[in-house]
Amino acid sequence: MKIGDFKMFKITVYSVREVEIPLFEKLNKDNFELNLVSEHLSIKNVAKAEGSDAVLVSGGDDTGKDVLEKIASYGIKLVYTRSVGVDRYDFAAANELGIKVANVPNYSPRSVAELAFILGMTLFRHVAPATYNTHMGDFRILPEYFANEIHDATVGIIGAGNIGTAEAKLYKALGAKTLAFQRHPDSSNDAVEFVDMDTLLKESDIVSIHVPYIPGKTDNLVGAPELAKMKSSAILVNTARGPVVDNEAVAQAVRDFKIGGYGTDVLLDEQHVMDKQFDTLDDVPNQIDKDLMKNYPNVIVTPHMGFFTVPAVTDMISTSFENFKSTIKTGKPIYPVER
Question: Taking every annotated instance into account, which residue ranges of this chain make up the domain D-isomer specific 2-hydroxyacid dehydrogenase NAD-binding (predicted)?
Fold first, then answer.
């Protein structure tokens, strides 16, 4: 096979939205044969990958044991993801089946950072309850709308990696004091002041979480004990993963006015809600998610759309193609994931 011409290499790509198709076509500079599938990968549609050399998934796809076994039965040994998270992979099954996994560890950090910033500011300035009330015909300026200005506020970032630092820079540009907690602080990061977790929770007007979900390690990183340390007016933002906060404790804290509000782009059991439309909120299958969302407008939820920008999706597709190209040329992807 000639370098630069991979027409004989077929990749079945799942979870491709219509607006993403032009990007897949534009960025396919090595002429891979692409089989673009709009649905999320599941046991019901895994057969669409038969005859392919590789599969490319996203964060909402099923890469559990049953699905991986079917993929392996087609002779496919490459199941890569164009997202960062790999928590839905059954790595024991992948290893047993000889399936290689690769991911996209970095993409435009501004995509998630901007959404986290917007969620934080929307609640900080009480925009969510104000717009809800005006759309219900109530145009009074209520005492609850009385707000501080962000240049006089303190923002705490839990996890000052690329995304957390990008968000900190947005707040810092508006004059806010930016604190951060990181297990291994980067002394060269001048966008934040590193402090311990307790100090961050006690002093921050907005607390924004940017940590990976590692089962058994980052579950409920922010729970009832941490919420109790926050200001009663403080806003909590989570654009990381649903399980890194105790969602029941957050819902209770909002109901009891122990915190000012919660903005999130992530929920529990997202595989059961992502890209689905329910008739009513009562039809959402996870009771904890449902109880949390019933606190609107003091709880605002977006449908895991932080990544959904042109620069970020471009990065995700381009890096995925580079992973495949490297595998064909060298036998290894650029960003392998082994567990």
Answer: 121-306
Question: Does 184 participate in catalysis according to the annotation?
Answer: no
Pull the structure tokens for residue 129.
């309850």
Distance CA 103, CA 86 (A): 8
What is the C-alpha to C-alpha distance for residues 237 and 58, in angstroms, rounded to an integer?
23
As a whole number, mean pLDDT of residues 18-44 equals 97
Range list of β-strands (E), 52-94: 54-57, 79-81
Question: Known catalytic residue: 88?
Answer: no
Burial of 198 (0-12, 13-18, 19+ CB in 10 A): exposed
Alpha-carbon distance of 335 to 291, in angstroms, equals 38
Region 8-26 average pLDDT: 97
Q: Let me know whether 101 and 143 are in one domain.
A: no
Q: Given the residues 193, 241, 248, 255, select the one marked as catalytic.
A: 241
- Single out the residue of 245, 304, 335 nearest to residue 61, CA to CA: 304
> Considering 135, 304, 322, 339, which one is annotated as catalytic?
304
Residue 128 within a domain: yes
Do residues 287 and 317 share a domain?
no
In a domain, 260, yes or no: yes
Tell me, yes or no, whether 165 and 313 share the same domain.
Answer: no
Q: Determine whether 270 is an active site residue.
A: yes
How far, rounded to the nearest angstrom, does the alpha carbon of residue 313 sit from its chain's CA centroid?
Answer: 13
Here the tokens at position 292 are 């949390």
Instruction: Tell me the mean pLDDT in the region 111-122.
Output: 98
Same domain, yes or no: 115 and 74 = no
Write down the catalytic residue from 183, 270, 322, 338.
270
pTM score, whole prediction: 0.92
In this structure, the answer to whether residues 16 and 58 fall within a common structural domain is yes
Residue 214's pLDDT is what? Answer: 86
Does residue 122 share a domain with residue 215? yes
In sequence order, the 6+-apart residues with CB closer than 8 A to the CB of 174 are 150, 151
How many Cβ atoms sit within 10 Å of the Cβ of residue 231? 17
**Ramachandran sector of residue 157 (left: φ over 0; alpha: ψ -120 to 50; beta: rest):** beta
Q: Are residues 78 and 53 in the same domain?
A: yes
